[in-house]
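Batch 3, record 17
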Amino acid sequence: MFTKNTETAPRRWEGRNEESAILSPTPLRGLPHSAAQIQRRQFLYSLGASLGSVAFTSLLAAEEKKNPLAPKPGHLTAKAKNVIFLMMEGGPSHIDTFDPKPMLAKMHLKEFLREGKQKSAMESGKRYYVQSPFKFAKRGQSGADMAENWTHLAKVADEICFFRGCNVDSVNHPTAMYQMNCGNRFGGDPGLGAWVSYGLGSINQDLPGFIVLPEVSYPQGGAANWSNGYLPANFQGTPLRAKGSPILDLMPPVGVNKARQRKNLDLLANLNSIHAAQHPGHDELAARMDNYELAFRMQMQVPETLDLSREDAKTKEAYGIGQDATDAFGRKCLLARKLVEKGVRFVQLYNGSWDSHDYIERAHGNLVRGVDQPIAALIADLKLRGLLDSTLIVWCGEFGRTPDNGVRGGTAYGRDHNPNAMTLWLAGGGCNAGHTIGATDELGMTAVAGKAHVRDFHVTLLRLLGLDDNQLTYYHAGRFKQLSQFGGQVIKGLLE
Amino acid sequence: MKPGFVITSMTALICSAASIWAADVSAEHLFVRRIAPLFAGKCLACHGNDESKIKGGLDLRTLAATLKGGDSGKPAIIAGKPEVSPLYLAVTRAHENEWKPMPPKDADKLYAEQLISVKQWIAGGAPWPTEERIQTIAKANEVTWSAEDGVTVVTSGGQSPEWTNRKYKLEGLWAYQPVKKPVPPETAGNPIDAFVAAKMPIGLQPAPAADRVTLIRRATFDLIGLPPKPEEVASFVKDPLPDAEAFTKVVERLLTSPHYGERMAQHWLDVTRYADSSGFSNDYERGNAWRYRDYVVRSFNADKRYDQFVREQIAGDEIEPENPEMLIATGFLRMGPWELTGMEVARIARQRFLDDVSNSVGETFLAHSLQCARCHDHKFDPVPTRDYYSLQAVFATTQIAERLAPFLPIENTDGFEERKYLELRRNEYLARLTELDDVLLRNGQRWLIEHKQDRAPWNAAVAAARGQSAANQRGFSDVFSAARSALTKQNVPESEFPPKLVGFSPEQFGMERVARKGLERLHWELDRYEPVALSIYNGRTPQVSSIPVPFRMPSNRMTAGDLEETCVLTGGDPFASGNNVKPGVLSVLGAVLKAPIPETIEGRRKTFADWVASAENPLTTRAIVNRLWLWHFDQPIAGNPNNFGSTGKRPTHPELLDWLTATFVERGWRFKTMHRLILNSDAYRRSTQHPDRKTLGDKDPAGVSYAVFKPRRLTAEELRDAMLTATGELNPTLGGIPNRPEINLEAALQPRQVMGTFAAAWTPNPKPEQRHRRSLYALKIRGLPDPLQEVFNAPPPGFSCERRETSAVTPQVFSLFNGQSTHSRALALANRAVKETHGDVHALTRLFLLVFSRPPSADELQRCLTHWRDIEALLVDATSPAQKPPFEVRRDAIEENTGEKFFFNEKLHPYTEFVPDLQPASVSAHTRALADVCLVLLNSNEFAYVY
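Prediction for the assembled complex:
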């Protein structure tokens, strides 16, 4: 059987005029757990103080085995409860966004000589310094540097903490993406959201703890960017796909209506009960049966969650929904807010590609136009609702870009990949808002002050959530593994 | 050391601290035993070893210097008073305002027991004996301390004397001990049962044997990965022989099945990370990987000796250079994700390959994850970083290539005609590029006018390029860029002729990339039908900056390029240069190496492989037997089949493991011998149900007694293959080019970014029999896993999978209960049951036999009959008409050059000849209603689990 194309509206049981936020996912990893179980867990925590710690730990472990997504306390005092991670895939140019380099104007189109062994084919041939086509301005009371085309973000400049010291190890997209998202360059390790849900559990038991809002097209490296890696599958990022069914096979094929689905589920429950009675002591059977019921509930809840029709027109307008340039990312940002409100722990939004090797003025110009208003609206909206303090927003790419460009010099100025300098920024969630931390050299080639490896950034992000990277470990394949691979340092300047 | 490990071991250490350190040990002894090594390991790097680089002015080499203190001017220790000694306060990290936490990095911080030692030593007066006295004390206490603290291990040596001389707990070294065949506790019966019985908790009786239906289902899934046919079940159940003998016959039959090799190959390919694509940015297809997959199937079916199997995969090309089979075998060395793009530094990519191979050889054969030793001496195991690079030097002359290797008569080379679809795509790309060349030439003219440039030089260059273009082998016209390069070569300023890709719209930018990159990608796909092996060769490292098309072995391999000299790469940095190393093995097992590994370009791997596959190598031999046990019991004897190091789980039954290992080697390294031995044991034939569950739970909470057999959820592949077997649709053909089943249509058409373009959509094979091959044969693209397989824990091929996970998560429900694929199987199953029987009761009975290997109970029968009728009543309208296949898909994207939206339509050629699976419209409403019963059975727990 075929569907004509993937553009048909996602199926759902009852027809109501709903407005899809966007998206569609693959693996929704959630276990159903009743309020009673959660209460039992909270009860256990309250016991912790009086019970011996060994007994307490083992009780807790048993609970966790039942429901790996049950909420749990972090190791340290948390500033933030949730994360909205804005992944500008492709590598936004720091030089053309938040790290002005006036010196480049003087060097414009002078020949650039690259030294060193770390040279890829990308950097071969004649190269020239390239000035930024964008003008910069000081924004907010904090006087943050921003390219002038960030007109909306300028209004919330004081909520932002810019970090110019981040370094990564890879000059290639998927490896750098994996490192930014999972801590390891080679893919297959758990994503940030997986670690965070593993560490803190999920507040909403009927939605995944880690939701990804990808572009229609998956980024380089694919779904491994939001993998659960070696963590249990419950922690995998669930992409809500941007087109078609938000979650693959969320609904049965055309022709199977709700009544028939329910009947089939009932027969299944009957046969499974008979089977379970013959196999007492086989715990996995019950978990598998519960999943069918949760799935049935999700068939109704997910479309509801994605429905933006009940948002007021002003809010939608603020996010740029309805305008061609900003509609897509505006919907994602608004949905991200909704998901955080519903208790989803970690929401990652993709945008791009920011890989502007050529024509950076046009390419970055369009890209900024697409995200500027939605992001600014998201920050303002969260603040208005009192959620900004507990929600950490991260904006970053997988690396920065070079101050120079290859033979394209002439008219099609662009920039290549640069692992030694980039700008990322934080907002909300207890970050050091209104400050710019770290600095790059006068050409934007490499970080020179406040320099820190991406693993330190990861450790810092965990710290804001009350998690200690050194304690957030998982035993796999014979050793304890952690997000930072082998430990890192909190970047204190990024904390309030 | 990872913190989690610290936490678990800490309790024990703290408890013992009370007895060992507090009571009967003088502070002086404490200094020799704990403090001096602690200073050397954690402090002296910055506080004494290098006088020119002493930090904070503090020198900790002598008592005098320590008492003098550093820049603060205060003594670092105050004897007898740890609570006011700056050194102690600094290492506690709890007095940050006064004393900077030491060591500075969080990751280096002292463990609780070390803090206790420092405190006790200072409290005990901080004695600091002379070097001579230190030696005397150390010598006098050597025996006692090694018993308590562990033993030293001789290796090639670490980067520091402290590492080289460090102590290991004996129990963590179990895997390096030679395998000695223990005598089974009893002589009667299967020795496996004797060893299992010896470890059975007192008071726990093993469960009785499973019934015959359960047993044949268990063994059939176990040995061939498929369910038994109803006739096979009936024949076993009716067999008048005693249970054990009748079962032996079943095992023998299964061991001769050609599907045995497929099942074992799946296990092996999990470990070696098989995939049909390269991963990373391009995720290029590895057109010839399938030949390695089939080599593995053949090897198992032929019951090849394991030592030979190991040698072939590491060094087949050196053992028999002219034998294509041996070139195919070395595909093992190519299994990791790898690519070299122009965006990457070639040397880094090369190092990635070397690191991948080193670690993979370690994990696969030696049960050692070696990557820890890439950056430093291994933190827990006696593997110095020097060994890591010595092992890597074995591969320093190993180069990757897609090598010519004629097809063997035994290989399945059917279905190559499918390349016509790829050629159609190729022709589209060529036409598109020619079309765009015209666009550029027109835009160029416009540009010259707008920019008021003289058109003559450009037109001349275009005319000249046109002349050459006719002779262009590439199959498309690229006059515009040829003219540009000609003028560039003539040093005409760039401002005087049109820039590249002049005047393109976002669509045209996008189309150009899609076509150009698409042609590159097709090279890899078209290589599938060529007599080429995914392989390696020996030679110097060629100087290439990207590999956009398959790489053939160069003729000047011995003369062109760099002859790599391996050295220790400090911190794992490919550009570091530590001491040079020679090709070698893990020095802890150096004695097993019979001949030195040559340093010539050729021959390194062969000698190395002989060491790996030596009967005396306790890691290789134990590792494979441990895996084999895991494959049968769903739990290994030693808990981490890829890691026998000290942090891996210890064997639950060490004597059993050694007995099996010795027996395996003794009887010729044959897998089938071991299957017979294991499957015919009582332990294997036990029921999953224990008559006394309470005692079982009390006596064996961890479930390692083998008093009951452990039920297991079917793997993703087994689930799909079992469904196809039940419906009768499974095409049992062995081997050949990968097939493409139908996967979730939205996933199939999901656009995927690869470098510079989008990967082609997943298009299923046109014919049902092509699609319904065993799951082992489905094309495995790293960036596009089949969602049904993925949700049921098919391992992503990035890392070696030592053991399948089986988590229960909601997407499994969506895939299996809602997914088209199960609905199609349910319909085919209903159709089969109806066609093969007369009457509804008979049909349902047949259904249960096909799905569960047993007839329904009266209760089940009644429920299913009722359901069938109810559903049929619900099917009011006729089926929706069969929908047309998607002949093309629209791709929407943001174009990279412009940041603007664009789209293009991708044609899906194989769909033009598509024959769908059985459609609802082709069967009666009665059959369609039965399909709902089938759907339920295929989703049931009984189907998903094997007992």
